[in-house]
Structure formats: C-alpha cells, structure tokens
Design a protein that fits this description.
Distance between the termini: 64 Å
Number of domains: 1
Number of helices: 6
Strand content: under 5%
Largest sheet: none
Structural class: mainly alpha
Amino acid sequence: MAHAKSEPGRRAIRYSATSLICVAITQVLLFIFTSKSLLHWSPGWGNITAVMLTSIPAFILNKRWVWGKRGKAHMRREVIPFTVFTLAGWVLSTLMVVLANHATEDMSKAVHQLSIQAANIAGFGTLWVLKYIFLDKIMFGRDHHTPYDEDIELEEAGVETDLKPTHNLG
C-alpha cells in the first residue's frame, strides 16, 4: 500500500490503467474486424488494424497521463521508440493470433473467436513489463528531457550543437 501511495506506485497504477483501456479498445476493434458475424477480416489484418489504431491513444495516455509530459512529441526520442515497442507487440501478437486461428478453425465460433482475442492479449502481455521499464527509466522517466530542451530545439533548428570555441585565445 505504501508503494501505491508513492509517485512511482501511482505511475505504475496509471500505466496499468492505460494498458487496460488500450487492451479494451484493441479487443473491441479486433472482435469487430475478425468476427465471422461482423466484418470477418483475416485475423492478421484485423490484429494489425486494431493495434495501429490503438497505438495513438496509447502513446498520448502514456506520455501525458502516466508520465505527465507535455509538449510536442519528439520523433527520435519518443515516437520512434514507442513505435518500435508497438511493432514488436504487433509482430508477436499477430504471430500468436494467426497460430490460434489455425489451431481453432474447426472449433465452435465462440471458442475460435476467444482464442484469437486471448492470443492478442498474450502477445502484448509478454512485452508489458519490459515496455514499462523502458518508458519509465529511459523515455518518459524523471530524467527524461522534454522536447523543448535547448539541445532539441537547436537540433530541430539545424544549429550545430557540438561545443566549439567561440573565441580565439591566440
């Protein structure tokens, strides 16, 4: 309980809540896309579409609500690393969804659909803790520099940031 009242504990709770929100969105989309009585897309296409659509609110919720960061997203320091984790989760979950689809094709419609849904969750679940550690310690954590730090502003303006002497001592 003491940890849950600390800032790292509250951050972990917000991260978990964000994950639950995004899992719910992904599952609803995946059901709509792959259900035999709805759109009936292939599980692979349904999974990639659900994951990509959910990645946008996931990034925003993680950056703003979980870690309290504001400002424009920095492509190299925030968007690309977050996208790499999303793609890793997509690859793993899609592999598991396709395997579940083939393994349960001849089973009842309900068992088949539930296996696809569970495979998606299992694929992302395997990366969940690793992603939290990365986001907390490297990307958005306490020592993370916001996109408005001077070095990033200079970099984006195309100004050289290397330390060079500005005067001649000779």
